[in-house]
Amino acid sequence: MIARLKGLVDSVDEDFAVIDVGGVGYLVHASARTLRRLGAAGTGVALEIETRIREDAFELFGFIDRGERDWFRLLTTVQGVGARVGLAILSVIEPGQLTAVIASKDQKTLTAADGVGPKLAARIVNELSGKVGSLSLGGTGGVTVADVSPAKGGAATDAAAAAGRVAEDAVSALVNLGYKRAEAFTAVMAVRGRLGEGVSLDALIPAALRELSTQ
Asked: What's the pTM value of the predicted model, to 2 decimals?
């Protein structure tokens, strides 16, 4: 199994690149994000590789960093998300934003990827929302899904539940102002990380707006 390739960019096409490793050209499928960062022909590059073997094909999928590779692996655990759809999602949503998209149940953003309709977007959100609790939200200082999701089995305290409702109300208010749900969620979590879970709604919304204005 090939886990990593280090060589020179031979050529870049719409959805794949050829990487020259010691005179052997490897065709590597990749997201638009990775392809944009490869550079011109002759540029040195190192790619994380996911090898997929089928009866009729031996395919390599390349990623500019491990975060993108890990998300590819996670996305393709969802029924209906094959390798091509996984790359399509990663082409339109940065890996650092995917946790926020899923945690905030932002199905609309997921449907921006080729091959992802409303039903598949809902399935992705439902199946992965419980699997990303340990992943940090990009730009939120390590805030995770677990910080806004009540513990199962009634273990969440009244204070935590109230804080969760305040955060959700703030996100909804920002969405009503025209912001995307994922970016609103990320801004609210960033502010909560700084001001604490007990921050009031009146303080949370303007602080989140200031956070969004700096992005």
From this structure: 0.69
